[in-house]
Design brief:
The protein is of the alpha+beta class. Helices cover 58% and strands 15% of the residues. Keywords: Signal.
C-alpha cells in the first residue's frame, strides 16, 4: 500500500476524532463531561489504529517523524516518476547511477564515457582498461561490490594503475561487451588493452567472487607480465608512424627531385638540339672538306644510354621498396633474465629469430624453443618457415626462450 494512501487514512482518522469531539461538546453541559468525551474519543482512535496492519503503522510513524523534524521535507517521488528518471539518464551515466544508489560513492573511479573513449584515454596514459560488467540481480553481486570492488585496497590499486570503465551487463554497451567478451558468470571483470585499429586485446578475465587480495594479485601479475610488452607495442606503433612519415617525406623528396631532373634533362636536350641546328647551319656555309672536322668539334656530349638510366632507376626503386617494408619488433626474454630487443621485417621467418639467438652465443643456452604466453603458443621446428606476420607476431610481440632438457 502506498505511503500517500497511508497518510490520507491517518488524516481521516484525525477528522473522525474531531467530529466525535464536537458531538460530545454539543451534548455536554459541564467541563467534566467535555474531558470525559475527549478521553473516550482518543481511546477509540488508538483502538482503531492498533487494528491497522503493521506496515501501515510503520508508514504513519515515518510520516510523523518526518513532520516532526521539519515541514520542508517532501514525499518520495512516485515509482513511475523514478522509472521515467532512470529511463532519461544518459547511457554513459546509467551504470554509475545504479551502482552508487546501492553501494555509495566509495568505489574505483569509473569513467562515465563510451568504452572507446575510455580506451583512448588508457592509450594516451599508457595504461590498461579495467572493465567491470555489473549484474544488479545476481546473488553474488552485493558481496563482491561491498567486500572486494569497493574495498580500500582495490580502489587504491585500480585508481593508480588502470583506467576503470563499468556498465550494466543487460543493456547498451554493457550487453555488447558481455557478448564480445563471452561472459559466462558473474561477477565479471576483465583487463583489456588497445590493439590495432578499433580492436582490443583481452589480457585477463576474472569471473566469480574473489577477495580484494586475490583481485589485486591477479591484476598485479597481469601488469608485470604484459606491461612491458604493452609499452613496447605503443613505442613500436609510434615508431612505425614516424617511419611511415619519414618514408612519405623521402618519397615526396625523390619525386620532386625526379621532376627537377626531368626538367633539366629536357632543357639539356633543347639546348643540344639548338646547338646542333646552329652547327648544321654553319657547316652548310663552309667548304665540304671542313664539314667533318667542324662537326667533330661541335658534337655535344652524349646523354646517358637508356639501358643505363633504366638500371639506375630500378636500383633506386628497390632501395625505396626495402625502406617501405614494415618492421616487426620482438622482445626476447632468456632464462637468466636477460632481455634482447630486435627488429625484423614482417616477411622474415621464425628461422630468422633462431639464427639471431644462436648468433648471440649466450652461455648456458643449449636446446630451446620459443613460446609466447598470452595466448601460450610454441614456435618450434614445424613453424620455422612461417613468416612473422603469418605467426601473428607482427607488428610487435614478446617471446620467451624455454630450455629443452
Amino acid at each position: 500500500m502506498g505511503e500517500s494512501f497511508t497518510v490520507a487514512l491517518f488524516y481521516n482518522l484525525l477528522l473522525l476524532l474531531q467530529y466525535q469531539t464536537l458531538l460530545q461538546m454539543a451534548s455536554s453541559q459541564t467541563s467534566h463531561d467535555l474531558i470525559e468525551g475527549l478521553r473516550t474519543s482518543c481511546n477509540n482512535l488508538v483502538r482503531r489504529m492498533m487494528r491497522l496492519p503493521f506496515g501501515i503503522l510503520d508508514d504513519i510513524s515515518r510520516v510523523i517523524g518526518r513532520e516532526a523534524t521539519g515541514r520542508n521535507s517532501s514525499y518520495p517521488e512516485p515509482l513511475h516518476q523514478l522509472e521515467e528518471f532512470e529511463f532519461n539518464i544518459p547511457e554513459e551515466w546509467y551504470f554509475l547511477n545504479v551502482f552508487e544508489r546501492q553501494y555509495g560513492e566509495s568505489h574505483p573511479f569509473f569513467y562515465a564515457s563510451r568504452f572507446m573513449e575510455a580506451l583512448k584515454i588508457a592509450k594516451n596514459e599508457s595504461k590498461f582498461v579495467f572493465v567491470y560488467l555489473h549484474s544488479p540481480d545476481h546473488p553474488l553481486t552485493p558481496s563482491f561490490c561491498h567486500e572486494t570492488l569497493c574495498s580500500e585496497l582495490a580502489v587504491q590499486f585500480l585508481d593508480e594503475n588502470f583506467v576503470s570503465w563499468g556498465a550494466v551487463a543487460s543493456r547498451g554497451e554493457g550487453l555488447e561487451m558481455a557478448m564480445a567478451l563471452r561472459v559466462t558468470s558473474f561477477p565479471f571483470c576483465a583487463v583489456v588493452a588497445p590493439a590495432t585499429g578499433k580492436s582490443i586485446a583481452v589480457l585477463q578475465k576474472v569471473e566469480g567472487p574473489v577477495s580484494p587480495e586475490a583481485l589485486v594479485e591477479i591484476l598485479q601479475r597481469t601488469l608485470e607480465e604484459q606491461g612491458s610488452a604493452f609499452r613496447l607495442s605503443i613505442t613500436a606503433e609510434e615508431e612505425v608512424i614516424r617511419e611511415n612519415r619519414r618514408l612519405r617525406e623521402e618519397q615526396d623528396k625523390a619525386y620532386l627531385a625526379a621532376l627537377q631532373k626531368d626538367k633539366e634533362k629536357e632543357e639539356l636536350l633543347s639546348a643540344t638540339e639548338r646547338r646542333r641546328k646552329v652547327n648544321d647551319e654553319n657547316l652548310s656555309r663552309k667548304p665540304a672538306q671542313k664539314h667533318t672536322l667542324e662537326q667533330m668539334k661541335e658534337v655535344p656530349k652524349e646523354t646517358p644510354r637508356p639501358k643505363e638510366a633504366s638500371e639506375e632507376a630500378q636500383k633506386k626503386e628497390n632501395i625505396t621498396l626495402r625502406k617501405m617494408q614494415p618492421h616487426t619488433r620482438l622482445l626476447i626474454r632468456f632464462p637468466n633474465g636477460t632481455k634482447k630487443e630486435q627488429k625484423f621485417t614482417s616477411t622474415d621467418t621464425i628461422r630468422s629469430i633462431y639464427k639471431y639467438i644462436d648468433s648471440l652465443e649466450i652461455p648456458g643456452v643449449g636446446s630451446y624453443q620459443l613460446i609466447s604466453n598470452f595466448p601460450r603458443k610454441v614456435y618450434g621446428h614445424e613453424q620455422l618457415d612461417m613468416t612473422l606476420r603469418e605467426a601473428g607476431l607482427h607488428p610487435n610481440a614478446a617471446l620467451f626462450l624455454e630450455l629443452i632438457s
